[in-house]
Q: What sequence folds into this?
């Protein structure tokens, strides 16, 4: 909120923060679209659900950033410029009909998430609101978590035999730990050395 006592430097900082939030919204939307594109290439339900979960989390990130931006002076018009969508939409690209095309789509999703991590970490030092700084730290950690899981998923499915179904989806790709995670099972590489005392929900939903 602009007040009569604000200096020019304060106004410049406010303006820079608004622009950073606007860019952050667009980056989150880019990650969401690429996750949806990869997930919709599979017939295996748990993998599709995994990408849908992560896409929904990233979509929530953009919504929260939009609220931050809308609450700022001049922010409402900037929210409209960010192209906020009401319906999830996958990134455009050629149909994913072969394993190499799938791996290329994975790479695009990874690169988008990596860009988000770098952006949010750098932006933490440039925004004027401590709550927003904390949220950007959370976003960077969330994307890092996603990349860890999806990197293991790609390693598990790479070079597995796949065929194209009549519905133009890739099958079969059966990854048991992906299905197990929705029952609260911790992935093998994330288990602590001592025995687990019970199931844990290890995916994160900030909403």
A:
């Amino acid at each position: 909120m602009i007040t009569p006592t604000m200096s020019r430097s304060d106004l410049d900082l406010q303006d820079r923060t608004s622009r950073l939030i606007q860019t952050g919204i667009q980056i989150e939307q880019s990650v969401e679209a690429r996750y949806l594109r990869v997930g919709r290439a599979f017939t295996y339900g748990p993998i599709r659900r995994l990408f849908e979960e992560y896409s929904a989390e990233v979509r929530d990130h953009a919504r929260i950033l939009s609220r931050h931006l809308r609450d700022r002076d001049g922010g409402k018009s900037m929210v409209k410029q960010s192209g906020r969508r009401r319906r999830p939409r996958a990134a455009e690209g050629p149909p994913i009909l072969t394993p190499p095309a799938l791996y290329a789509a994975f790479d695009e999703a990874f690169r988008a998430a990596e860009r988000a991590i770098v952006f949010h970490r750098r932006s933490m030092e440039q925004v004027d609101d401590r709550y927003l700084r904390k949220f950007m730290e959370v976003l960077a950690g969330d994307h890092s978590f996603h990349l860890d899981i999806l990197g293991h998923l790609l390693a598990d499915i790479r070079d597995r035999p796949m065929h194209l179904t009549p519905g133009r989806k890739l099958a079969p790709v059966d990854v048991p730990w992906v299905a197990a995670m929705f029952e609260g099972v911790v992935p093998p590489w994330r288990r602590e050395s001592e025995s687990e005392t019970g199931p844990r929900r290890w995916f994160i939903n900030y909403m």
The beta strands are 163-164, 170-171. Helices lie at 8-39, 45-70, 75-81, 99-123, 130-157, 176-181. Residues 34 and 156 are 20 Å apart (CA to CA). Residues 8-39 form the longest helix (32 residues).
